[in-house]
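Lecture notes, unit on binding sites. The following record was shown on slide 14. It pairs a sequence with zinc ion.
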Amino acid sequence: MGPVNTYRIQIKGLVQGIGFRPFVHRLAGSLNLFGTVENRNNGVFIFINTDKDGMDSFVEKIKSLAPKHARIDKITVETVETIPFTDFSIATSENVSDDITGISPDIAVCPDCLSDMELQEHRKDYPLINCTNCGPRFSIIKGVPYDRSKTTMAEFRMCPKCEEEYSDINDRRFHAQPVACNNCGPMYTIHINNKTTKNINEIVTIAAQLIHDGSVVALKGTGGYHLLCDAYNENTIKNLRISKAREGKPFAVMCRDISIADKLAQMTSADKEIIATWRRPVMLLESRGILAPSISNGLSTVGVILPYMPFHYLLFKKLHTDTIVFTSANFSDEPVIISDDQALTKLKSLASAVITYNREIYNRTDDSVCRTINYREFIIRRSRGYSPSPVNTQLKTEGIFGAGAELNNCFAIGKGTQVIISQHIGDLKNAETLDFYTTSFNRLSDMFRFKPDIIAKDLHPDYLSSAFAEKMASELNIRHVNVQHHHAHIASCMAEHNLNEKVIGVALDGVGLGTDMNIWGGEFMIADLCDFERMMHFEYVPISGADKISPEPWRSGVAYLDKYVKDMKTISETLRLKEIGQDNITLYRRIMTAGINVCQYSGAGRLFDAVAAISGICLFSSYQAEAPMLLESAVQKGISRCYDFEMKDEEISFGKTIEGILHDLKKGIPAGEISAAFHNTVGRAVVEGVKELHEISGIHKIVLSGGTFQNKYLSEYVINELSREKFSVYFHHQVPSNDGGLALGQVVVAAARRDEGYI
Ligand SMILES: [Zn+2]
Ligand SMILES: [Zn+2]
């Protein structure tokens, strides 16, 4: 044994709120080591007396045996002045600097707690049961270091029994901050017909009966309210759609367990693994068409989630049905409701009963949405269970605020070398969402001790996020930088993979303002984090109508036909476009000829809209990207053919593709085959474009991003074909490829520019 020193070990990462201190305490106990462990805002600190070998093996054991929800980013060890410890203990949490460690996302209830809910006398059917391995975290946290006093559990005093468990090193609830039971914790209440009851068995029985009878029930969740109803009752679902003003958007469903999910939808082993993780996202799966048709509303997919709160499990024990609609309680584009008062007033018109509990939701989080692409997790909406986990980079990101986009907004803040991305905020189109954005910015800044130094925003001046950013920049008198939309997309994917050299980036999406003031979205670039060069793009097509273009795909249809076919007779005869009416088409063409409100679009989104319209799949869209989603849903598997397209210097033209589609329509080829051949064509065009850029540049690292790559068929086609050509392909796994990932890109572009001395 060597000389004994006091070592100070700092551990950064996700090490608070997941049972890390008790773990260290037990580990030290088993090794007979004396010292302390404490939470500080900048990580877990261990002081320990041992010799060099003892310290090395202690650190090794910390790494290999850490609790399963922990994520260790960095361990720093220093020798300090010797402290004569006589035991090992947990010291009081401390606030020491502006540095910060991770805040845990919310964790689905664990199997041990589900069993305790049946066996423990004081937690019999206790619907908010939790332990160090599970329960609410981010949604209840007001500040760090993570302690009960800094959560919305602060007002609940532990009963002697809970206190005992909380203080017992051998108990699973040792230092579990939200620990609670039937005697001391928050309670549920059901509000029905101006009456209330707090008895959990009655609440669950009433809720199950209402759902069975075809009613809708509002239920307070981890990060917001949900609306529930029977997933087999077409009438109820149709009515819910009308009253929620959610005309076409698909609803997610919650199944009793994974065997039911397996019955409802096709799942690979990767799907099965992700759907059951503690993060519990909604998984987009290929539906088997068993549920009420209005749930998916024409899409071939269904969003499935498994129970994640103790209450959900209690409810399924009483429910007759094995699957319920599980949709966030909000109106149209507003954020999901989190306040009990609002739930009780606003949801009255939608739900027969409102079920609340008396613990405040501090940080709103929606259910996250994922799918698998090439058997890997791909995030479409990043919120509960994921947020506020950071993306680790190798750049100095401190002080950089990324304002994000307009739709599917998330913002991001830089801390150290990390980028912390906010929970999904939504479409910044109304006062409520902007308020959510502002509040969340203030809260995250506060929690993570964030002081903005540089503001990164989209080039588009009209985004509310850009306006917010500019106002902040002028108020604080700090610099702001503009980051082109598609460069930000590519940079976000590069950041996930720690790439900082020149890459070939392909960004396909709906709309984003280009540096030439045209609307981009079919972009091939050579980029590094600082800058990019636009090398090639989908051919510009003039389209008129601004805000109407997205909800009315038929306009894109006419615009593409107008550019590539011109012949009036063909345009008006093209299948379902006839439904628009000759007068409307003529008028629209006249408006375009006159150049009224016309912009040049190179967006893949518009091309998908146009093909969805021309092939009769979608003329009007009731939610964002409905037409491309329906077009993807229509794909007939096993079709390998492509339409022609042309590579013209810097532009890829799909004129021949449109001609080919018209030809197929005339021949009566089914829409599914047309859709598949069209997807193959776009995929092939991406591959050919990449090959051309590779010829010029010799670069073999290919980065894919943008909302269009949420399309599983297209993404898998492109990834597989590029891999076959021996390219290294980089795709998203930590943030969405849609605008929800944009803020990450903005932050890393600003960080790289600051690093290089450009700003
Ligand atoms: Zn638990
Ligand atoms: Zn208790």
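Take-home: The first strand starts at residue 5 and ends at 14.
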